[in-house]
């Protein structure tokens, strides 16, 4: 029995575990493993609670005295719930989370055991920064880096799985010289600048607004594969995707998996991780089968952007841990299987005021609609002016496989507003008037008396648009499932903050010259719409016609990651980021270098895996199978059954032809890789990997996948698509 056969037998005999739901109601369970506002209110003195609340709400500095009280409260709370260690939990530029656990246990000077957690340990830690990506911001031999507590994201308890819990403190990560080495630090800066810029614009319409908070809802798509079959696929283990695999006769063409009944085993996994997520304060609400077989989605309630991104990173880690318990491997790669849909992470972004107003929600009141249009068109203008940068923010080796693959938005950044909004904006330009009927007053008449009328939104959803308006928010659909959402959100927050600041500057100039406020606002918005109109597209973003149309409009279509990433270091990007103070030129160049390095390394690993699997798994197996066929053909020939032997000889020839090509292509790819590895210029190395080394991937795959159809099913060494995708 082959390793694959044993793995399939194990997977086939799995049964769904019986889960015992918690006794608490979901509302009581929610946030039970977080150092929440309620916990702080209970454990802190009134003075300390007010100070920490003000720091969370307005960003004021927390003094060391308050930090000491908070740390003492955190320690007692965490230990009472079974914690033995604490860690600063941060998000370095590796794309995943990081943590270094320290014990509460310590010894006094006279050798007595105590449990200690000082305010200084809460506020700051010093992890070794030498092995994290820095993009040249620091030398490899310089080990010092700092993590700093982010009080706006609640500390939480992570179950270690084998007993004991760890107190996790969300933190920023900076170099010894103060540059950001993570996602959180620039994200927090971008949120501050967006709040400042959006609030100043809001006050043209309502003086009561003192704060604007960007909100985010992240839809997370993923695949599940049985653990045994996962280990029967070295490519999945090493790269997160299958580099070989013939499409099964049945894939997703029947559309029967989408929103289908969830199997008991998968449902048990979902229920388990949802309960654990709720304990951590992650407000997961939605679960369903996605389009591709073996693919699923979960989504939370909208939260403040920083918290939403922390929660998504934590959720991905949690899902992997819970998957282990259920003998599942969770795949977050954007394209783990060829021929079926890949996975995205749709980022639904909006702006809310401290007075309870969604700034991206249209109304029927003229003054409020002018405010809505102001924010809507400033977002459109920002995306238009920095489209290439927004494209760069979601660029990766994994997402390169997915974008434009007739399942995800293309590499062309466009904005969908919907026919009604677009017509209204045309009317604004042509007549200087705004007429908008709220969609909430429009109902579908179904003609079925037992079913109540269904409400229609004022815009449809365009699933082919990378950046679409969906009624009261923008949905950035091009984000890859494995990506940290901070990357596109840092860019979006920064470019919108920069644009809103420019709008305010123009308004101030017009108002100071005596122009009436409404007239000035409409005049600026008319110009913004005219200047940005070419990026608006209502049709099918998957079509070839759109590619041609976008080219005529002068829109970028940057398909290669190494080309897309260059937008990080253009003059316009550096100007916008330095003006807002989100990232310096040095930090931007570092991120550009890190992303290029990561792209090269991912393709380098994939190339090596392809070589190994093709030669040491596929070709070696095929040669053994050929020998069996040759023996059979010889036996038939000896029996003078020449006609019967002929088809077997043809199969042997077919196999040989594929083997010859595979060996030739693998050798050529390896030589190209050697040349690329010796290139000193990082961009040239990335370009050679992306255009030349990667160019062999599909060619080699074609011949390996043909061999999968020729070799006896029992002998094929790799778990097949039909086994991995349809076994639940």
Automatic annotation (TrEMBL):
GO terms for molecular function: glutamine synthetase activity. Gene3D superfamilies: 1.20.120.1560, Glutamine synthetase/guanido kinase, catalytic domain. Residues 84-178 form the GS beta-grasp domain. Residues 183-618 form the GS catalytic domain. It comes from the Bacteria. InterPro entries: Gln-synt_C, Gln_synt_N, Gln_synth/guanido_kin_cat_dom, Gln_synth_cat_dom, Gln_synth_gly_rich_site, GS_Type-3, GSIII_N. GO terms for biological process: glutamine biosynthetic process. Belongs to the glutamine synthetase family. This is Glutamine synthetase. It comes from Dyadobacter koreensis. The lineage of its organism: Bacteria, Pseudomonadati, Bacteroidota, Cytophagia, Cytophagales.
């Amino acid at each position: 029995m082959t390793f694959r056969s044993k793995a399939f037998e194990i997977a086939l005999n799995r049964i769904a575990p019986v889960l015992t739901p918690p006794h608490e109601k979901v509302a009581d369970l929610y946030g039970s493993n977080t150092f929440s506002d309620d916990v702080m209110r209970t454990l802190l003195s009134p003075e300390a609670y007010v100070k920490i609340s003000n720091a969370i709400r307005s960003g004021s500095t927390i003094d060391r005295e308050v930090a000491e009280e908070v740390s003492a409260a955190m320690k007692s709370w965490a230990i009472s719930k079974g914690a033995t260690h604490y860690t600063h939990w941060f998000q370095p530029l590796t794309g995943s989370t990081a943590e270094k656990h320290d014990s509460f246990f310590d010894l006094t000077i006279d050798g007595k055991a105590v449990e200690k957690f000082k305010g200084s340990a809460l506020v700051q830690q010093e992890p070794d920064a030498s092995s994290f990506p820095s993009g040249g911001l620091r030398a490899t031999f310089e080990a010092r880096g700092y993590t700093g507590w982010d009080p706006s994201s609640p500390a939480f308890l992570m179950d270690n799985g084998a007993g004991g819990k760890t107190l996790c403190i969300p933190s920023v990560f900076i170099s010894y010289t103060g540059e950001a080495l993570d996602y959180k630090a620039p994200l927090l800066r971008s949120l501050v600048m967006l709040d400042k810029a959006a609030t100043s614009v809001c006050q043209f319409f309502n003086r009561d607004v003192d704060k604007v908070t960007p909100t985010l809802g992240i839809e997370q798509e993923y695949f599940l594969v049985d653990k045994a079959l996962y280990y029967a696929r070295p490519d999945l283990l090493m790269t997160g995707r299958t580099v070989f695999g013939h499409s099964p006769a049945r894939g997703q063409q029947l559309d029967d998996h989408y929103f289908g009944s969830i199997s008991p085993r998968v449902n048990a996994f979902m229920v388990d991780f949802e309960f654990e997520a709720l304990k951590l304060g992650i407000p997961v609400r939605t679960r369903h089968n996605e389009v591709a077989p073996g693919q699923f989605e979960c989504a939370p309630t909208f939260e403040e952007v920083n918290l939403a991104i922390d929660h998504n990173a934590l959720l991905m880690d949690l899902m992997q841990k819970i998957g282990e318990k259920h003998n599942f491997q969770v795949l977050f790669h954007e394209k783990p299987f060829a021929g079926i849909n890949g996975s995205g992470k749709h980022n639904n972004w909006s702006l809310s005021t401290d007075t309870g107003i969604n700034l991206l929600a249209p109304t029927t009141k003229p003054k409020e609609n002018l405010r809505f249009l102001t924010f809507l068109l400033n977002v459109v203008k920002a995306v238009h002016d920095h489209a290439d940068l927004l494209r760069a923010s979601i660029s990766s080796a994994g997402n390169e496989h997915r974008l434009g693959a007739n399942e995800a938005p293309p590499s062309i950044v466009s904005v969908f507003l919907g026919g009604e909004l677009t017509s209204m904006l045309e009317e604004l330009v042509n007549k200087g008037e705004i007429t908008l009927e709220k969609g909430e007053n429009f109902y579908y008449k179904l003609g079925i008396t037992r079913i109540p009328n269904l409400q229609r939104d004022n815009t449809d959803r365009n699933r082919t648009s990378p950046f679409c308006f969906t009624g009261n928010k923008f949905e950035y659909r091009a984000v890859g499932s494995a990506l940290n959402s901070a990357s596109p959100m840092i860019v979006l927050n920064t470019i919108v903050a920069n644009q809103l600041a420019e709008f305010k500057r123009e308004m101030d100039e017009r108002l100071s010259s005596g122009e009436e406020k409404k007239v000035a606002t409409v005049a600026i918005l008319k110009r913004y719409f005219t200047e940005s109109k070419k990026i608006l597209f209502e049709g099918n973003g998957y079509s070839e016609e759109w590619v041609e149309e976008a080219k005529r409009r002068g829109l970028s279509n940057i398909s290669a990651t190494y080309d897309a990433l260059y937008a990080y270091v253009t003059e316009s990007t550096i100007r916008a980021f330095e003006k807002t103070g989100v990232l310096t030129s040095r930090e931007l160049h570092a991120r550009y270098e890190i992303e290029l390095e990561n792209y090269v390394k991912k393709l380098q690993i994939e190339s090596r895996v392809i070589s190994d699997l093709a030669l040491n798994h596929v070709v070696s197996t095929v040669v053994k199978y050929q020998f069996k066929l040759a023996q059979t053909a010889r036996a038939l020939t000896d029996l003078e059954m020449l006609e019967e032997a002929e088809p077997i000889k043809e199969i042997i020839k077919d196999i040989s032809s594929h083997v010859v090509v595979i060996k030739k292509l693998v050798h050529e790819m390896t030589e190209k890789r050697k040349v690329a590895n010796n290139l000193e210029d990082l961009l040239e190395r990335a370009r050679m990997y992306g255009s030349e080394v990667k160019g062999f991937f599909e060619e080699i795959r074609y011949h390996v996948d043909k061999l999968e159809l020729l070799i006896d099913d029992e002998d094929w060494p790799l778990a097949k698509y039909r086994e991995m995708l349809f076994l639940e």
